[in-house]
């Protein structure tokens, strides 16, 4: 597909989202396969141009980058043999630099944990430009702040999904089967429900390219 979404060079600075002092590192997100399946469905059933996605981590400094690479290298090496895997499972706090532990996190830690995601995209203001493979002429920047993502947000998303399935059955896919969340809730009020319950989606900028 042209134009393609090429992978950014690791450790480069990214001024597109307004934080030029941070460096990016490609992130093998498990969400990528879900997104691909969603976009494939929209293309096959609605003729919509598939969205191409890349995931990155934003890191503060070279110190953070080296720490992350070191932990990743240790885990890769130790996971290759049974004795190494046993050590990783027995002492997760040591080998993860304190990120993982057998002990449950305190309520204070849980409530103060926040995940910030920036969504930067390029596209077209006119469908005709898409059909003729013109270069993108618009950019958009969004931001989502999720508080307590592992516990609070997961529970909230599950409950809201159940409510919408019960209250908006006419807006769900007509045929049975297994659907990705994007496909299942595309025509529903899921995004609005999340926003009303403390999951803000901000549009920071829309610019011409």
Written description of the protein model:
The protein has 209 residues and is an alpha+beta fold. The chain has a domain at 23-60 and 104-208. Helix content is 41%, strand content 17%. The chain is built from 9 helices and 5 strands, in the order βαβααααβαβαααβ. The chain has helices at residues 31-46, 62-78, 82-90, 92-95, 107-111, 127-131, 149-167, 181-184, 190-196; strands at 23-26, 56-59, 114-123, 138-147, 201-208. The strands form 2 sheets. Strands 3-4-5 form a 3-stranded antiparallel sheet, with helices on one face. It is globular and about 55 Å long. It starts with 22 loop residues before the first strand and ends with a strand. The model has no long low-confidence stretch (mean pLDDT 85).
In short:
It comes from Photinus pyralis. This is Saccharopine dehydrogenase-like C-terminal domain-containing protein. By secondary structure, this protein is of the alpha+beta class.
Layout of helices and strands, plus pairs?
Elements: E1 23-26, H1 31-46, E2 56-59, H2 62-78, H3 82-90, H4 92-95, H5 107-111, E3 114-123, H6 127-131, E4 138-147, H7 149-167, H8 181-184, H9 190-196, E5 201-208
Antiparallel strand pairs: 1-2, 3-4, 4-5
Protein name: Saccharopine dehydrogenase-like C-terminal domain-containing protein
GO cellular component, one term: mitochondrion
Organism: Photinus pyralis
């Amino acid at each position: 597909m042209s134009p393609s979404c090429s992978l950014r060079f690791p450790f480069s600075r990214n001024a597109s989202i307004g934080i030029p002092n941070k460096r990016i590192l490609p992130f093998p997100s498990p969400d990528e396969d879900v997104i691909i399946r969603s976009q494939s469905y929209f293309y096959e059933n609605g003729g919509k141009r598939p969205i191409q996605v890349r995931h990155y981590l934003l890191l503060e400094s070279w110190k953070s980058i080296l720490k992350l690479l070191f932990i990743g290298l240790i885990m890769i090496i130790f996971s290759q043999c049974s004795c190494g895997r046993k050590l990783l499972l027995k002492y997760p706090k040591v080998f993860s630099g304190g990120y993982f532990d057998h002990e449950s996190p305190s309520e204070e830690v849980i409530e103060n944990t926040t995940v910030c995601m920036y969504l930067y995209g390029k596209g077209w203001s006119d469908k005709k430009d898409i059909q003729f493979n013109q270069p993108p002429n618009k950019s958009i920047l969004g931001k989502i702040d999720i508080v307590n993502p592992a516990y609070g947000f997961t529970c909230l998303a599950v409950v809201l999904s159940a409510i919408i399935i019960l209250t908006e059955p006419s807006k769900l896919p007509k045929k049975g089967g297994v659907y990705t969340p994007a496909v299942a809730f595309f025509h529903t009020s899921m995004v609005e429900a999340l926003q009303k319950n403390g999951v803000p989606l901000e549009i920071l900028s829309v610019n011409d390219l």
